[in-house]
Design goal:
By secondary structure, the protein is an alpha+beta fold. The chain has two helices and four strands.
Length: 77
C-alpha cells in the first residue's frame, strides 16, 4: 500500500485481549488494518511499546466489580 511518498512495508500489529487473565495467557498479537495518513498527518513506525502496570491490572480484570458501598462524606453538616 502506498500513497504519495508513503509506503507500508510491514503489516501493522496490535495486541488484543478478549477475556481477563494473566497477560501472557490472554494477550494475542494480530495483524491490524493499515490506515492511510490524511493530508497533514504523519505515520510513525513503532518498534516497541511499554505496558504500564495499570494496563496489566485492566487485562487481569482488576476493578471490574463496582463497589456496592455507598460513598458518603465524613463531615457533619
Amino acid at each position: 500500500m502506498s500513497a504519495g511518498n508513503w509506503t507500508l512495508t510491514r503489516m501493522p500489529k496490535k495486541a488484543v485481549h478478549e477475556r481477563y487473565g494473566h497477560a501472557r495467557d490472554v494477550l494475542r498479537v494480530v495483524d491490524a488494518p493499515a490506515e492511510m495518513p490524511a493530508a497533514g498527518e504523519v505515520v510513525v513506525r513503532m518498534e516497541a511499546a511499554a505496558m504500564h502496570i495499570a494496563d496489566l491490572r485492566t487485562i487481569a480484570g482488576a476493578g471490574r466489580q463496582a463497589s456496592a458501598r455507598q460513598r458518603t462524606s465524613s463531615r457533619k453538616v
